[in-house]
């Protein structure tokens, strides 16, 4: 039976419609499989990336560390310090905050005074602090910044520090609980200029009966444990001595400390900085100088200290007895 022309056209349209619907159905199935496969790949990639970057290598401690950095004119070193320490402490799963205490006044640099200020200003949620020089970077991952359970931990001990090797050395990096720091009334505020504030702090600890722990089992020695970024040629130490500074800072200070610091400084500004992803709290501080007690806070135009050195020794003397080095 012959079909009419209109019937033929209708049949052709029906065949074409069926063919188009079949193609669309096949395309939808293929696309769905591709999307599912891509989603599976994406999940696997995300999980792998998270394991490498975001997951700490150890369980996070319940303790929290505030790193107190006494500071002046060291921005190049800070740019390296902040991100480096962020990574170093992340690998140890140490909760921490970095507090840079910048001396913005015109007096001579006073490291101990600034650490006292940092103790007062830093977060009370930190149950221990690190007194940390900005130019000293730990290189050995076994130098642990965990809470010092046994007592203050001198990470940059005399056996490991690249420069200072006398037995009672206490500078560089020291971890100490807030309780122990307050127990000895912090550090002395009398040490304007460079040096001896950590020697005075050692005497405070010794007289309080607080033993100092040091890293054990570190085999990298002086050459490989730390990197000291300070250049004495580019930034000379302030070793000036004026008035009667040498003799009047020879013994333990029983006049100043953490308690006296509380009302003896001014916070000029407080900034939240991010240095290559590392958060930093940056404080501009003005310290106060009691010129009757410590006129050597400014030696400009002052008479140099030519007084006869006091050589006597007693339990309060902070000047270390350095072992004589053998002549080679």
What can be said about the biggest beta sheet? 7 strands, mixed
* Side-by-side strand order of the widest sheet: 5-6-3-1-2-9-8
Record field, number of beta strands: 9
Task: Please state the CA-atom Rg, rounded to the nearest Å.
Answer: 32 Å
| Residues in β-strands, percent | 15-25%
Question: What number is the mean pLDDT?
Answer: 87
> Structural class of the secondary elements?
alpha/beta
Q: Please work out how many helical segments DSSP would assign.
A: 8
Low-confidence stretches: 33-55
Shape: elongated
**What is the terminal separation in angstroms?**
124 Å
Helical content class: 25-40%
SSE series: HEHEHEEEEHHHEHHEE
Protein model, in words:
- The protein has helices at residues 5-53, 75-91, 111-121, 178-183, 197-207, 221-224, 245-248, 258-261; strands spanning 64-71, 95-103, 128-132, 136-138, 153-154, 173-177, 226-228, 265-275, 278-287.
- It has 328 residues and is of the alpha/beta class.
- It has a seven-stranded mixed beta sheet with strand order 5-6-3-1-2-9-8. It has a two-stranded antiparallel sheet with strand order 4-7.
- Strand 1, helix 2 and strand 2 form a beta-alpha-beta unit.
- 30% of the residues are buried.
Provide tags for this entry:
alpha/beta, 328 residues, 8 helices, two-stranded antiparallel sheet
Topology:
Layout: H1 5-53, E1 64-71, H2 75-91, E2 95-103, H3 111-121, E3 128-132, E4 136-138, E5 153-154, E6 173-177, H4 178-183, H5 197-207, H6 221-224, E7 226-228, H7 245-248, H8 258-261, E8 265-275, E9 278-287
Parallel strand pairs: 1-2, 1-3, 2-9
Antiparallel strand pairs: 3-6, 4-7, 5-6, 8-9
């Amino acid at each position: 039976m012959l079909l009419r022309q209109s019937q033929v056209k209708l049949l052709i349209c029906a065949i074409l419609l069926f063919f188009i619907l079949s193609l669309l159905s096949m395309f939808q199935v293929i696309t769905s499989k591709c999307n599912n496969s891509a989603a599976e790949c994406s999940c696997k990639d995300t999980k792998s990336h998270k394991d490498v970057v975001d997951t700490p290598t150890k369980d996070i401690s319940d303790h929290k560390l505030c790193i107190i950095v006494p500071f002046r004119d060291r921005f190049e070193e800070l740019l390296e310090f902040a991100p480096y320490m962020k990574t170093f402490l992340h690998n140890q799963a140490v909760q921490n905050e970095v507090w840079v205490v910048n001396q913005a006044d015109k007096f001579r640099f006073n490291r101990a005074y600034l650490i006292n200020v940092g103790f007062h200003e830093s977060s009370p949620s930190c149950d221990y602090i690190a007194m940390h020089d900005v130019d000293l970077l730990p290189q050995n991952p076994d130098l642990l910044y965990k809470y010092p359970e046994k007592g203050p931990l001198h990470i940059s001990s005399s056996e490991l520090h690249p420069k200072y090797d006398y037995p009672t050395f206490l500078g560089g990096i020291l971890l100490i609980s807030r309780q122990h720091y307050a127990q000895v009334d912090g550090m002395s505020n009398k040490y304007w200029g460079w040096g001896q504030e950590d020697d005075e702090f050692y005497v405070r600890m010794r007289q309080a009966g607080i033993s100092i722990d040091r890293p054990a089992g570190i085999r990298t020695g002086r050459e490989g444990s730390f990197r000291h970024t300070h250049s004495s040629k580019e930034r000379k130490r302030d070793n000036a001595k004026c008035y009667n500074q040498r003799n009047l800072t020879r013994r333990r200070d029983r006049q100043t400390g953490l308690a006296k610091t509380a009302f003896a400084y001014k916070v000029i500004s407080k900034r939240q900085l991010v240095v290559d992803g590392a958060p930093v709290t940056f404080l501009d501080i003005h310290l106060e100088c009691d010129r009757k007690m410590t006129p050597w806070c400014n030696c400009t135009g002052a008479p140099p200290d030519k007084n006869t050195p006091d050589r006597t020794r007693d339990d309060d003397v902070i000047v270390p007895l350095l072992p004589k080095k053998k002549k080679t």
